[in-house]
Amino acid sequence: MAITALKGTPVQIIGELPAVGATAPDFTLTGADLGDVTSTELRGKRVVLNIFPSIDTGVCASSVRRFNELASGLENTAVVCASADLPFALGRFCGTEGIENVVTASSFRSDFGADFGLTLGDSPMKGLLARAIVVLDEKGAVLHSEIVPEIATEPNYDAAVAALSN
User: Fold this and answer.
1) Is 6 among the domain residues?
2) Which of 159, 145, 122 lies closest to 4 in space, CA to CA?
3) Hey, what's the torsion of the CAs at 156, 159, 162, 166, to 10 degrees?
4) Contact 29/82 with Cβ under 8 angstroms?
5) pLDDT for position 57
6) Residue 39 domain-assigned?
7) Is 33 left (phi over 0), alpha (psi -120 to 50) or beta?
8) Could you tell me if 14 and 1 are in contact, meaning their C-beta atoms sit under 8 angstroms apart?
9) What is the DSSP letter of 141?
């Protein structure tokens, strides 16, 4: 079981994040339009999964903004920003912020958190997703994965983008 922290207090994460080199689990998330966002439809593209607890926190919002900027320069790459937020909240945020280069998706009606080993356990944020990055190649193999050690900090954007160059 992995560990992250919330303002210095350890938080258990239920499950194990897929390892580099492993094939990522298939997934179905819910897009802002309530349609499915699936790993199957993304095959043939590299995928950056920007996973976070809630769009309504400053760090989560910052990560979506930053990946939106980065996504404009990434060829054959889909950036999926996933949380347990309802699709309406994700859509509202993107509309207000002018976010157009990433896909936002909700895990609210899927097993995404369990399948990727990213469901937060024993904390006030229990049931939400841990802050993590998973980068996949065109066939769904994991090129890079990171569970951010402190939920209140941003992920390593440079490492995620560098993984796409390998």
Assistant:
1) no
2) 122
3) -150
4) yes
5) 86
6) yes
7) alpha
8) yes
9) B
Q: Where are the beta strands (DSSP E) in 44-125?
A: 46-51, 77-83, 103-106, 119-120
Region for residue 44 given its phi and psi (left: phi exceeds 0; alpha: psi -120 to 50; beta: otherwise): left
Q: Is residue 13 part of a domain?
A: no
Q: Band of the pLDDT at 141, cuts 50, 70, 90?
A: very high
**From 20-29, 60-69, 74-83, the region with the lowest mean pLDDT:** 60-69
Give the pLDDT mean for 64-84: 94
The number of residues making up the chain comes to 166
Asked whether residue 5 is assigned to any structural domain, the reply reads no
Distance CA 164, CA 95 (A): 28
- What single-letter amino acid sits at 124? P
53, 151 contact by CB (below 8 A): yes
Residue 147 is part of which domain span? 18-110+127-164
What is the SS3 assignment for 6?
strand
pTM above 0.85, yes or no: yes
Query: What band does 58 get if pLDDT is binned at 50, 70 and 90?
Result: confident
Q: In this structure, what token pair is assigned to residue 45?
A: 């593209």
Q: Which residues are catalytic?
A: 60
